[in-house]
Amino acid sequence: MPEVSGAAWVALAGLLGLLIGSFLNVVIHRLPKMLERQWREQCAESAADPAAPAAPAPKASEAPPPYNLVTPRSACPACQAPISAWQNIPLVSYLLLRGRCASCGVRISLRYPLIELLCGVLTAAVAWKFGVGWPALAAAIVTWFLIALAGIDLDHQLLPDYLTLPLLWGGLIASLLWTPSTTASLPVSPAQAIVGAAAGYVSLWAVFHLFRLCTGKEGMGYGDFKLLAALGAWLGARMLLPIVLGSATVGAIVGITLILSGQRGRGVPLPFGPFLAAAGWLAIMWGPEWVNAYIGLYGRV
């Protein structure tokens, strides 16, 4: 059991995780819509006839309202009633409202408090594992990114560059700023981060093209390459094999189970990002212990 100061640190981290989880719900919901708007605008610009006279700029009153992670204010999807501050307290508001909108009574999706609870629990676990210090902060930030990426991939089969690339560059920069710890899994040395990022991307890229060559189908997206590269940047190359094997094994079990139970057709793709994210988080927490135990076992054979 942690000491009193350790318990306070874990509790504070858990509360922070709840707040971050509330924001991650916004990211998971809005970021794909923001990207869709951008893509539509780019398609409209590409389809425009360059010889045609330029259309007049829309008036301020005719311009579409801004839509980002801050604006507009959060509202009920059913009745569009704004959500007040007291209705947006992580977990507490959901319980007080009994899972329903205060204005129209429509049931609120259970995923919102679950994301908040998951983020709070995982952040507290990181604080318990790493204690006070930079490794705990780094592990918490990676955890938040992984939760957002997993949620978006589950909904849209999309791992946005807006999240994977900052996570990748963050791992590379962290390797330069902080000396690697002998007790923590991250960050790693600059050399390990560079090799891990390159190996993570190239390994899934090679599997992707080999699978397409053999089957004529695409087995995963480029976002999966970037996510594994980001994990390699934070954890180094030696963590990649446990992450890939763990995520592929669990993904196969889940996929087969869904097919046999009739909940998913054989031709329906299953997002791989959530399994990568889960395996990556486990590698952050216990990866070095697993690798050292395996090496020790292999050495005794």
The average pLDDT value, as a whole number, equals 88
Query: Treating each run of at least 4 consecutive H or I residues as one helix, how many helices?
Result: 9
Overall tally of structural domains: 2
Calculate the terminal CA-CA distance, rounded to whole Å.
Answer: 35 Å
Characterize the largest beta sheet: strand count, sense, and whether it forms a barrel.
none
Helix and strand pattern: HHHHHHHHH
> Radius of gyration, Cα only, in angstroms?
22 Å
Oligomer: single chain
Tell me the strand percentage band. Answer: under 5%
Name the poorly predicted regions: none
Q: Which class best fits the helix and strand makeup?
A: mainly alpha
Helix content: 55-70%
Defining traits:
301 residues, mainly alpha, 2 domains, 66% helix, 0% strand
What does the model show?
With 301 residues, the protein is mostly helical. The chain has two domains: 1-44 and 58-132, no CATH class; 133-300, no CATH class. 66% of the residues lie in helices and 0% in strands. It has helices at 4-47, 92-96, 111-130, 134-156, 161-177, 190-215, 222-235, 240-260, 273-300. The longest helix has 44 residues, at 4-47. The protein starts with a helix and ends with a helix. The model has no long low-confidence stretch (mean pLDDT 88).
